[in-house]
Amino acid sequence: MLANFLEKSKPINFIVYLGLFFCYFFGKITFTLFSGDITLYQAFESILFVFLFLSVFFFFNFIVTKNKLTLDHSYAFYVFTLAITLFFSALFDFKSITLVIIYLLFLRKAYSLRSSKNMIQKIFDGGLWLGVMFLLEPFSILFSIVLCIAILAYQKITINTIISPVIGFVTPLIIYFTYLLWNNSPEKFNDLFDFISAHKLFIYRENYTLWIFGVFLFLTLLSILLKSPKALSINDYFKKSWIVLIINSLIAVVFALFISEKNGSEIIFFLIPGCIIIANGFEVVKKRILKNILFGLLLLGTIVTLYFL
């Protein structure tokens, strides 16, 4: 029954997923607000986060549907909604959720390169969003590999496709450096490139985060093994997108391990391409009863993790 519902990509499906998420969202917010004194700032903050989370869902769905990264179903949105719910507390932070939104805007440009329409502008915008991400989190420079792979996969290499992302990337850096120079603090600009002192490679200490990361990583790897033979056997746009998705996931895992300040939200950088890959893995499963079991286990696992772990 659940599989039948997920195989549709009608607006009602997405409304149901968003409704379930925001029921949890408002439940958490109400509990937090009424456990203390309610201030006008807290009320405004909660309303703002509603729009920020809506933006995350909107851009994720746009990337998947516009670039045809899955078939006509809502598997990816379903898995992504569960993932966002699991990391709700980590994302309830302005810097974290802003970084995720900018990352989605960056991926939107990278995957849209499958179309040659406004190609140079898309590449420039991709570099621009990457530059903004770099200012917020220097280790996000790793995602420049994703943009390069997308350009190589979808477009021909020319002087324009080489220069455009570089110009886009340095534009926000120049603006930021000018601002620091104006305020007599240019030394802060050098801190962005101090990767050695900021480097702290370690695995997550919290069992909660480690288990979620491990489960989604396992499902992603399993889906790659199941889907790749078919995806790579046909020379079309999806084959190129599949390669970019795999590289994107790999870079996101490295990013999640290398990032200096870990709070769990950085795993979303992996889960965005990971959920799309997992959705493609579900497509390979032909038996409906098996799909129902797998989707049910994901939902049950999410509920157990949220309320019992």
Main attributes of the structure:
single chain; 15 helices; mainly alpha; 0% strand; globular; 309 residues
What is the structure about, briefly put?
The chain is built from 15 helices and no strands. The protein is mainly α and 309 residues long. Helix 2 (11-34) runs parallel beside helix 4 (75-86) and helix 7 (119-136) packs parallel to helix 9 (159-182).
Would you give an account of this structure?
With 309 residues, the protein is mostly helical. The protein has one domain. 77% of the residues lie in helices and 0% in strands. The protein contains 15 helices and no strands. Helix 3 runs parallel beside helix 6. The radius of gyration is 20 Å and the shape is globular. The mean pLDDT is 86.
Could you give the topology of this structure?
Layout: H1 2-6, H2 11-34, H3 40-66, H4 75-86, H5 88-91, H6 94-111, H7 119-136, H8 144-154, H9 159-182, H10 187-191, H11 195-198, H12 207-231, H13 237-258, H14 268-284, H15 288-308
| Biggest sheet layout | none
| Portion of residues within helices | over 70%
Q: What global shape is seen?
A: globular
Structural class estimated from helices and strands: mainly alpha
Uncertain runs = none
Query: What count of helical segments does DSSP give?
Result: 15
Mean pLDDT: 86
Radius of gyration: 20 Å
Strand tally is: 0
Span from first to last CA? 28 Å
Number of domains as seen in the coordinates? 1
Beta-strand content: under 5%
**Helix and strand element order:** HHHHHHHHHHHHHHH
